[in-house]
Specification:
0% strand, 7 helices, mainly alpha, single chain
Length: 137
């Protein structure tokens, strides 16, 4: 979906309105991550270091037939792994690319639901939504 690709691109470029940026602008009042409520929310934390995201991504990789220990301590390695894995024109590369875009979008959407509406979705709910999104492609 185009909106998934755009959000993924904005996340990679560090252009989403994450709490660390909102604090600099004087808009946010707290810096805690909306998903794990543990560490200051930043692009690197939200999309790679967050324990909630690591569990979600590990499950999605497993659904795609990849057994991989997601390393939350080295986000650059994870991004490098994804860019290496989605190269090419194979079905597996396409499914991984769609999965990655869907997960980044779901993380962003869930973070915003928690921030703006106070809605908290479980990991299982996010996985079900992601399965539907990936399966519809």
């Amino acid at each position: 979906m185009p909106k998934h690709t755009i959000i993924t691109w904005l996340a990679i470029m560090g252009r989403l309105s994450i709490k660390d940026r909102l604090l600099k602008w004087g808009v946010a009042t707290s810096a805690g991550c909306m998903l794990c409520e543990d560490i200051e929310e930043s692009h690197i934390h939200l999309f790679s270091e967050c324990c909630f995201v690591a569990r979600l991504w590990k499950e999605v990789l497993w659904l795609n037939g990849l057994v991989r220990d997601v390393t939350v301590s080295d986000p650059q390695a994870e991004v490098g792994y994804m860019f290496t894995s989605i190269k090419g024109k194979t079905l597996r590369s396409f499914v991984l690319c769609v999965s990655w875009n869907a997960i980044v979008y779901q993380i962003w959407e869930d973070r915003n639901r928690r921030q703006l509406r106070g809605e908290i979705r479980t990991l299982e709910t996010l996985l079900n939504v992601s399965r539907r999104l990936i399966g519809s492609k």
